[in-house]
Amino acid sequence: MSTTDTQAPAADQPEAAEEKPNFMRLFGRYLTEANSVMVTIYSLLLAFLIGAILLIVSDEYVRSTYTYFFARPQDALTASWYLVRDSYIALFEGAILNLNMLDRFAAGNAEFGDLLRPLSETLTYATPLIFTGLAVGLAFRAGLFNIGAQGQMIFGMLGALIIGFGLSLPAVIHLPLAIIAGAIAGAAFGAVPGLLKATTGAHEVISSIMLNNIAALFLVWAIGTDFLHSETKTDLITKPVDETAVMPKLLSGLSESLRVNWALPLGILAAVFTWWLLSRSTFGFRIRAVGFNEHASATAGMRIGSTYTTTMAVAGGLAGLAGAALSLGVGSAGLTTNTALEYGFDGITVALLGRANPGGIVAAALLFGALKAGALSAQPDVPVDISTLLQAIIVLFIAAPALVKAILHLRTPRGGLVTLEAKGW
């Protein structure tokens, strides 16, 4: 009996695999998402856009061209464009590279050191911000708001100054000792709000604000004492530190006018140390655990009070290093009440922009240093307040990522919006 072979039913073909998104699609999706990186970038762009609008509004000539906008709109648009372009170019030239100086250098009419002067000023202004930004950022990771970096920096300045002029030692001993003294003075002052929080529950913001005022007034009094006041000048300035305690300049071989000194690499080392402390040490794990959930950390046996005190002490030590950098660097000829400027308070904005990450803090400090150097160099063509204005707008958007998300209609990232928070409010 013949049989006919029956053809086996064809195996079900696997469903067509979904097409994998290519790189450009993934990149486009990333650009339209309110993740921490894109929120930071968009915050910068929005800040410069709003800054451009305010530049236009504040310029009398440009405003006058808008009175006849509908008759000759090109006048207003051209004037606005040139104002914004020239202002931001002036900021760039004052902070990074002066294009006119570059032409002179190419023609052989300028030294290489002259070409580096804007960058040197940026790095000089950025150096204290690295330390104070790290001081604020480290406390943030423990859920603390270290608003007292200004006072800690002032005490660091005084500690380094006293050792800087009060001892006669070889440079190899004198300079490190003065730096350590600044760090210890800042750490001691920084530990106070941490200790008060641990023992009495006093919020570190309130106590550190009061300590900032105490430090500022103490600085005014201390400079006027016979112990610290200059012996050769009548105005309110301290004695200079000895040459053996002065921070050497990094680029003195090119030009003595280049002020950036060895405090900059010290700041980079401080950032590396902070990263190691938070990411690789047991104490850093405790800081992050307490910052994430203090109640769970207490249940796990961690001592919350000692963590607060120690964290604020380390943060104060970092801010004290900023003071030491000022006393032994740009202020080595003598400190005044204006030497500290607002570096401690600006460290808050640096920490926010850097997302309390050591690498991000260094980058944010460089940006704010560039804004400061550029605004001062661009006088009188650019309002000096433009730097502060841009910093304030950047911080506004960084602190409120939901605002950036709403303005640009960004998608919510998978993990939700990331914000920095301090406990206790």
Description:
The model has no long low-confidence stretch (mean pLDDT about 90). Helix 10 (about 265-280) crosses helix 11 (about 280-290). This protein has helices spanning about 25-30, 35-60, 60-65, 75-95, 100-105, 110-140, 150-165, 170-200, 205-225, 265-280, 280-290, 295-300, 305-330, 345-355, 360-375, 385-400, 400-410. The chain is built from 17 helices and no strands. By secondary structure, the chain is mainly α. It has a domain at about 130-365. The radius of gyration is 27 Å and the shape is globular. The relative contact order is 0.17.
List keywords for this structure.
single chain, 425 residues, mainly alpha, 17 helices, 66% helix
Provide a short characterization of the protein structure.
With 425 residues, the protein is mainly alpha-helical. The chain has 17 helices and no strands. The protein has a domain at 130-366.
Produce the secondary structure layout.
Elements: H1 23-31, H2 36-58, H3 60-65, H4 73-95, H5 99-106, H6 112-141, H7 149-166, H8 171-200, H9 204-223, H10 263-280, H11 282-292, H12 294-299, H13 304-328, H14 343-353, H15 358-377, H16 385-399, H17 401-408
Helix pairs in contact: 2-4, 2-16, 4-15, 6-10, 6-13, 6-14, 6-15, 7-8, 7-9, 7-13, 7-14, 8-9, 8-13, 10-11, 10-15, 11-13, 14-15, 15-16
What is the percentage of strand-forming residues? under 5%
Figure out the total of helices: 17
Distance, first to last CA: 92 Å
The pLDDT mean sits at: 88
Estimate the global geometry from the Cα principal axes: globular
Overall helicity: 55-70%
What can be said about the biggest beta sheet? Answer: none
Oligomer: single chain
Provide the gyration radius in Å.
27 Å
Element-level helix/strand string: HHHHHHHHHHHHHHHHH
Structural class: mainly alpha
Unreliable spans: none
Number of E strands: 0
